[in-house]
Design goal:
Shape: globular
Strand content: 25-35%
CATH class of the largest domain: Alpha Beta
Number of helices: 9
CATH superfamily of the largest domain: ANL, N-terminal domain
Number of domains: 2
CATH topology of the largest domain: Rossmann fold
Distance between the termini: 37 Å
């Protein structure tokens, strides 16, 4: 019934799902060539060929999964996956099938680190999307997978892959999302990221922006988050991504997600849902926050959780976090 109300472009061959700001999946329409003609380029960057054995996890409603699986099949590679949200099982598959690659978002890579007990020498490349990355994550992955090269990419369902960098480049320029893929042009206009590419969805006007903010530093694209993704504390605007990056780097925090919540005095306040590192208490976390986070950006509410909830797209489910806050 939903599709009956939507106009499908005449040049569309298929649709992919994306989760909008409301959390309701919506279809984006693509031509077959908008993916296929880019497979060789992305496979070159990700070092994928017929000898590749890649582990990945998650729903096909995550466009990144669907695209990556088709690109693997295009290369004649082997796919190892699981329908279970069980990191210990993932680790056994990675070892038993001697996987050479992993494709997981940082939220799931942290789960592997949490449950991993052995080093795995077969992994040559770990590919991750541009969620919050920090030095501790990259260092821990390097310890657990000593022969791996970390590749971080930035992309969008509307635009395909945009930029990429290695773990070494990220450590040199923290919060970068790298340099553009070949055949992709990136411009900064009024602090917004605009992309010109032949590999986007049907009938978009180029250059195109999804509303992300950024700037250039030494030729690397530095990512500042989505426009409007702020907490307005009585006129003082707290950037959600920037605060999450700051908190993620504290020695007592393993994972964190920040949301805006209503406040009678300031209008909005900061609430932080935190997975603590082993051995640290809420008091430890509070002390680190007071020491390292500017006063106006410190969360008013802190909730410790065992694990952050994820959507089908493997991203933190902030709508559910808002429900958790409202039901506290």
């Amino acid at each position: 019934r939903l599709l009956e109300t939507i106009h499908i472009p005449s040049n569309a061959d298929f649709g992919v799902l994306t989760s909008g700001t409301t959390g309701m999946p919506k279809p984006l329409w693509r031509s077959e060539s908008s993916w296929i003609d880019f497979f060789d380029e992305q496979n070159k960057v990700f070092h994928i060929d017929s000898n590749t054995k890649m582990f990945l996890h998650g729903s096909f409603s995550f466009t990144g999964n669907t695209n990556m699986i088709l690109a693997l099949l295009w290369a004649g590679a082997t796919i190892v996956t699981s329908d279970k949200m069980q990191p210990k099982r993932w680790l056994s598959y990675i070892e038993n099938y001697q996987c050479s690659h992993m494709y997981l978002l940082p939220t799931k890579l942290r789960l592997l680190i949490r449950f991993g007990r052995n080093t795995i020498d077969t992994i040559s490349y770990i590919i991750a999307g541009s969620q919050t990355v920090d030095e501790a994550l990259i260092t821990s992955l390097q310890t657990m997978y000593p022969k791996m090269e970390f590749i971080l990419y930035y992309g969008a369902s509307e635009l395909n892959y945009i930029t990429y960098c290695s773990g070494h480049e990220w450590l040199r320029y923290p919060n970068t999302v790298g340099k553009p893929f070949d055949l992709v042009q990136v411009d900064i206009i009024d602090e917004s990221i605009y992309v010109t590419t032949d590999y986007g969805i049907c009938n978009i006007e180029l250059p195109y922006t999804v509303g992300d903010k950024g700037y250039w530093e030494s030729g690397y694209l530095m990512f500042k988050g989505r426009s409007g993704d702020v907490v307005n504390k009585g006129g003082y605007k707290v950037g959600v991504l920037s605060l999450e990056n700051t908190l993620q780097n504290l020695p007592s925090i393993d994972e964190v997600a920040v949301i805006a919540v209503p406040d009678d005095i300031r209008g909005e306040e900061v609430a932080a849902f935190i997975v603590p590192k082993q051995g640290f208490t809420v008091s430890d976390i509070g002390n680190h926050i007071h020491k390292y986070v500017p006063n106006m950006e410190q969360p008013k509410y802190i909730q410790l959780v065992e694990q952050l909830p994820l959507t089908d797209c493997s991203k933190v489910d902030k709508n559910l976090l808002k429900e958790w806050y409202n039901n506290k």
